[in-house]
Amino acid sequence: MLRPRQFASDNVSGICPEAMAALAEANRDHAPSYGADAWTARAEAAIRDLLGAPDAEVFLLFTGTAANALSLAALAPPFGVAYCHPVAHVANDECGAPQMLGHGLQLRTVGGAGGKVDPARLRERVGHEFLHSGKPAALTLTQATELGTVYSLGELRALRDAARDLGLKVHMDGARLANAIAALGARPRDVVEAAGLTALSLGGTKNGLLAAEAVVLFDREAARDFAYRRKQAGQLASKHRYLAAQWVGVLESGAWLRNAERANRVAAALEAGARRLGLEPVHPREANEVFLPLPDAALKGLEARGWAVYSDAAWGGARLVASWDSTDDDVRAFLDDLAAVLA
Amino acid sequence: MLRPRQFASDNVSGICPEAMAALAEANRDHAPSYGADAWTARAEAAIRDLLGAPDAEVFLLFTGTAANALSLAALAPPFGVAYCHPVAHVANDECGAPQMLGHGLQLRTVGGAGGKVDPARLRERVGHEFLHSGKPAALTLTQATELGTVYSLGELRALRDAARDLGLKVHMDGARLANAIAALGARPRDVVEAAGLTALSLGGTKNGLLAAEAVVLFDREAARDFAYRRKQAGQLASKHRYLAAQWVGVLESGAWLRNAERANRVAAALEAGARRLGLEPVHPREANEVFLPLPDAALKGLEARGWAVYSDAAWGGARLVASWDSTDDDVRAFLDDLAAVLA
Amino acid sequence: MLRPRQFASDNVSGICPEAMAALAEANRDHAPSYGADAWTARAEAAIRDLLGAPDAEVFLLFTGTAANALSLAALAPPFGVAYCHPVAHVANDECGAPQMLGHGLQLRTVGGAGGKVDPARLRERVGHEFLHSGKPAALTLTQATELGTVYSLGELRALRDAARDLGLKVHMDGARLANAIAALGARPRDVVEAAGLTALSLGGTKNGLLAAEAVVLFDREAARDFAYRRKQAGQLASKHRYLAAQWVGVLESGAWLRNAERANRVAAALEAGARRLGLEPVHPREANEVFLPLPDAALKGLEARGWAVYSDAAWGGARLVASWDSTDDDVRAFLDDLAAVLA
Amino acid sequence: MLRPRQFASDNVSGICPEAMAALAEANRDHAPSYGADAWTARAEAAIRDLLGAPDAEVFLLFTGTAANALSLAALAPPFGVAYCHPVAHVANDECGAPQMLGHGLQLRTVGGAGGKVDPARLRERVGHEFLHSGKPAALTLTQATELGTVYSLGELRALRDAARDLGLKVHMDGARLANAIAALGARPRDVVEAAGLTALSLGGTKNGLLAAEAVVLFDREAARDFAYRRKQAGQLASKHRYLAAQWVGVLESGAWLRNAERANRVAAALEAGARRLGLEPVHPREANEVFLPLPDAALKGLEARGWAVYSDAAWGGARLVASWDSTDDDVRAFLDDLAAVLA
Q1: Do B245 and B312 fall into the same domain?
Q2: pTM beyond 0.90, yes or no
Q3: Among candidates D73, D78, D231 on the partner chain, residue whose Cβ is nearest the Cβ of B132
Q4: Which chain C residues contact residue D243 at CB under 8 A?
Q5: How large a percentage of chain C has pLDDT more than 70?
Q6: For the domain that residue D303 is a member of, what is the CATH number?
Q7: d(CA C79, CA C102)
Q8: pLDDT of A314 above 90
Q9: Domain count of chain C?
Q10: In the prediction, which pLDDT does D313 show?
Q11: Is B3 a member of any domain?
Q12: Which of B28, B97, B237 is nearest residue A232 as measured by Cβ atoms?
């Protein structure tokens, strides 16, 4: 029997109050469809404001998989190559969406410590490409990474410089950008600038929205025809105001950052508790995820006590993720059970 | 200045109370993601029940464009041909989604009166195909049609028989299936059976949901790998319970049919009013749409009074669409203004 | 029993002596692969020279289907619309290659007399497109047309002007361009200029080559990455000199035009003979094809006498095609049998 | 100044006499197009005979890239995963053709010594796949490998068994299958059977043909619609007899095997000479390729003496490839220069 509150992922939690209230508020009268409504204008303005990018173009859509794949499709041609870390979501968890919605583009992995692409390895790898291997086109970075680490501004700048030298446009999978921002104590615009982004998948769902993400394009050329891409991929909402309202709800209220800060704080408490139990996290805990070296018996024990915990060889451990609504009580309950199964 | 209530489309209206309440109810505790939650099981059961198809497989997703394109991708290979009416949504309003998400498949149009595919013309057209023109694979019908008409069960049976003879699988774009069901006074299962459906795009958004559609597959073979298709196309919701809850909301309460009946009734009132003003509908008004032969001056006049009314040469007139929440007052307000601009 | 010489198509004939000799001559020593050889440079220069386009970029490949589809992929994005005549090869005889190799692009047909796109209808059709229907991107013209007619320079200019006004780039399917050039008595460069071409599929196979076509791009931007497209589509020959040598063989010798002139002349003789038998061609015979209104009994009679003759409702008659090696004797033999079966 | 005879690749050599003679012989009279001619039937029969597979279906086409990509497209759905070795041609030298012509399918690399996929690693890797990562669908093996090694029949059987257990269909990239057959001293049918092939890319170009490959499908289901795939990809030759004749030329005469035996023999002489110069091949020389650890200075020296020699970090050395027409004199000339530049 599953427990009603979990650390399995930040997509097992629900919709935060600010988003829910905005949905209700948007549900009055009729409104123009396909984004010609007032909520959409407000959401787009709020996102531009968040990112300090008054000229950026914003496209709301439903899933992170679509946001990532369509961003890459906008940055790389069908015969292009996009580089990512071997543990990246695009490479392991999107069922070939980048290849399919990118019309045949290739993903090539470039490793690095802590789930972060190593700029020197990137330079070396791209140096080997030629007509027959495909055209180097894009670099996609995950912030925070799949291993719960966060690129520092300096690390982003080094990758931006490498990308510029190599002729690659940079995309960021920001499914957990809020958590990274909370961890860095930087402004979103600092990350955008340090990484030299052309495209950003701005995550909302893991932050407390129903199913709402955004693609932000910082370059006129990349943005020019993106509206067609979104429509052709079946990602244009007819009742667009409801996507927009959720964003307005968390951005105008400041909940976007608060939700992430709380998730990070709870993850830190999980980490501290795990250390007290003698468990050293597999990767530095920098945002809202903690990876622990749990033996199989412990995993089974947790499962028997109603906890869903995912483990994957590629992660090197079992993953715990705190959500916008995770509490200290949740941490205590989990740590108690963890202590018991480890005993 | 746009008026707060319109007849521009059934996607300008909002979320119906039953769906909204279900969203709120689903927003408790954590729940497994990607469809492993209890709401999803309930929604799928409710849809199977609605369609009298206990063995059908149900896949929830976000938009009608995706539902149609992925259905066709499941029914037709990349080198296949799908046949549709020239006014079909797939051919005119989906920006090439069937071709792109269908990996290159061809749409071929086959005409017929009242927005309905003519079975004799279908037989003739398919008879001309050969290796070089592509493999005949699917027939896609819109019910209710883009012109607001409704295929009778007899008409569907004639098309089913033609499709069977020609080796075509049948898909139905049911964005407004509820309206068609209300118009026919038949059960959904009667339509499914009469049309010999392999795949159905079951529409929820125009019925009062936020952004929730379903693909229903009546054939094991077609359904086998559809979960991969949905995921690869970026249409798998992580917080899947919210898609599911909306469906539960309208299906378990009976609102699905009630919403459609009301929209049809209001459209009938619009039609009656238009006739009183001397306007003969361009197509028979059978569901929730009325097409009127309005002169440009009248369209401009309505616009000046705050009405958004779409007109398209392919429709042969201006289109009015009633929603689940349209009222007799709305009709009166519109007809008053219509009378004024026609005067 | 099929007769050894036919008028079924200009792809039933073989390789002309000039191309065969060049193949033999190229078959000495080793040569760099993938186009880095001397034959390729010569062939590209000869094609630029033929077209009076010193800056054009030339890409040799194997089939007309690939040449057309990859040209359209270079001119139109995946969400783009390419306009063609309803009888065009791309729409009827390429099994969805433009849609598949064009990554989902849509073909939209625009009619006109004699197999030629009507510029006024093109303007009207494009005027209806919007975000949901796809982005108008390209116009593709067939010269000579599928109905054996030839666009005059004036007709091409009118279409070029329409395309320019509508923001469409122009592609020409020149599978039988040599026949059109021979018919017009114009220079190839006149056709290129009158049509305002961005891309040309230059046909070699029907002119007497083994399997050798060329895509010629008149615009730097369109040409920039075409080498990748050709490679990714499996159309880059490793022993590239053999594609090149065939082109050198027919271009440096003047056989390209002579082959077409002869085919046109023989077709004219067929036409004249048919008229003497009381048959009025269905379309004006302007190049190397004659379309005759043959009753089924006549078609069966011809078949019984060993003639392969294709008939198609879309053509409005039975098609006879003269090849680079067709002779007056062939014409006499056919007309004798035609007279017999009509008697 | 490049020397007229090289060891750069087996695609720098020309067309062998048996193929050339067949081309000339096929160049008589007219013949039905698109494969309905007598040469095609003969070639298909010869290929079935070569492979001991009377029920296999044979599809001739132009390039190995197309043969591989279309084979994978036939074996794996768009959301499928095909496994290959990291040095495989499909992964490094086909510009994303498998992804594009495979409609989005993913290639996943599985390592192993000597350019050969390790069955244990394959089992482990496939064990990690789930809905979000894609559907395991195909295993593609290169025989002879990109590193010049040859899978033994035992190695193939172990991979076949793994593939069967994992639900993967097996494809073989046989661009140099003849060389592998010559090396193994086995019959082609033994390789087909040991590997449990569903699809084979049978290479002709590197064996002495102009540009002629074949896809052989050993399974009715996989073969059923392949004719459409070939056409849609622009790989259906209109003058199909010329593709067929080349195959007839080398198969009916036995040149197919003789050409490979000679290339292997010459490569063995190169290897022996290199050893005499103190160079130990980087990989076991088993077919017609030798990989040598040449310092940069030596590569530059060879280049200065007119030799084109390719080196790649992924290969771990410089590659020499013998062709069907390589001679002992060529070997002597090369070794003399190699000795000089190493001195």
Answers
A1: no
A2: yes
A3: D231
A4: 211
A5: 100
A6: 3.90.1150.10
A7: 9
A8: no
A9: 2
A10: 84
A11: no
A12: B97
Clarify whether residues D97 and D227 are in a common domain.
Answer: yes
- Ranges of residues in chain D with a pLDDT under 70 are none
Residue C310 sits at the chain B interface (C-beta within 8 Å) = no
Distance CA A182, CA A341 (A): 32
Instruction: Classify the C-alpha dihedral D4-D9-D15-D18 as positive or negative.
Output: positive
Give the residue from chain D lying closest to A103, CA to CA.
D100
- Residue D1, chain A, CB below 8 Å: the answer is no
- Measure A218 CA to nearest chain D CA, in Å: 27
End-to-end Cα spacing for chain B: 22
Asked if A103's CB is within 8 angstroms of C79's CB, the reply is no
Q: Is A66 at the interface with chain B, CB within 8 A?
A: yes
Range of the domain at D315: 257-342
What CATH number corresponds to the domain at position D167? 3.40.640.10
Nearest-CB residue to B99 (from C104, C132, C312):
C104
Q: Considering the domain boundaries, does residue D5 fall inside one?
A: no
| Statement to judge: residues D283 and D266 lie in one domain | yes
What percent helix, strand, coil does chain B show, rounded to 5?
A: 45, 15, 40
Task: Report if residue D7 sits inside a domain.
Answer: no
pLDDT tens digits for D34-67? 999 999 999 999 999 999 999 999 999 999 999 9
Give me A79's structure tokens. 């015969």
Nearest CA in chain A to B15: A27
Each residue of C242-286: pLDDT tens digit? 999 999 999 999 999 999 999 999 999 999 999 999 999 999 999
The model's pLDDT over A152-184, given as tens digits with 9 standing for 90+, comes to 999 999 999 999 999 999 999 999 999 999 999
Q: Chain D within 8 Å of C231 (Cβ-Cβ)?
A: yes
Query: Is the Cβ–Cβ distance between A55 and A45 less than 8 Å?
Result: no
- Cα B61 to Cα B242: distance, rounded to the nearest angstrom: 11
> What is the Cα B187 distance to its own chain's centre?
16
> What pLDDT does residue A1 have?
79
**C326-341 average pLDDT score:** 98
CB contacts under 8 A, D 137-156 vs A, are: none
Q: Which residue has the tokens 């993601």?
A: B33
Confirm whether the ipTM is greater than 0.95.
Answer: yes
Find where tokens 């008054």 sit: A54
In this structure, are A103 and A179 located in the same domain? Answer: yes
**Is A2 a member of any domain?**
no
Q: What is the DSSP string of B58-101?
A: EEEES-HHHHHHHHHHHHS-TTEEEEE-TT-HHHHSSTTHHHHH
Least CB-CB distance to B104: which of C93, C100, C131? C100
- Say how far apart CA B61 and CA A56 lie, in whole Å: 29
Cα angle, residue C297 at apex, residues C294 and C299 outer, rounded to 5°: 55
In what side-by-side order are the strands of the sheet with B80-84?
B57-61, B213-217, B197-203, B169-174, B135-142, B80-84, B106-109
Cβ–Cβ contact B233 with A under 8 A: yes
Does D124 lie in the same domain as D56? yes
Q: Tell how far CA C29 is from the center of its chain.
A: 34
Residues of B (250-289) whose Cβ lies below 8 Å from A: none
pLDDT value, residue D314: 87
Which of C253, C273, C301 is the last residue before a domain boundary? Answer: C253
Order of all β-strands in the sheet with D169-174: D57-61, D213-217, D197-203, D169-174, D135-142, D80-84, D106-109
Query: With an 8 Å Cβ cutoff, is C130 touching chain B?
Result: no
Q: From CA B257, how far away is CA B250, in angstroms rounded? A: 8
* Nearest residue of D to residue C67, measured between CA atoms: D234
Residue carrying structure tokens 């800060």 = A261
Do D188 and D264 belong together in one domain? no
Q: How far is CA C202 from CA A241, C32, C51, C90, in A?
A: 50, 24, 10, 15
Could you tell me how far CA C256 lies from the centroid of its own chain? 13
Report the candidate in D179, D245, D177 with the shortest Cα–Cα distance to residue D209: D245
The CB density around residue D131, as the number of other CB atoms within 10 Å, is 17
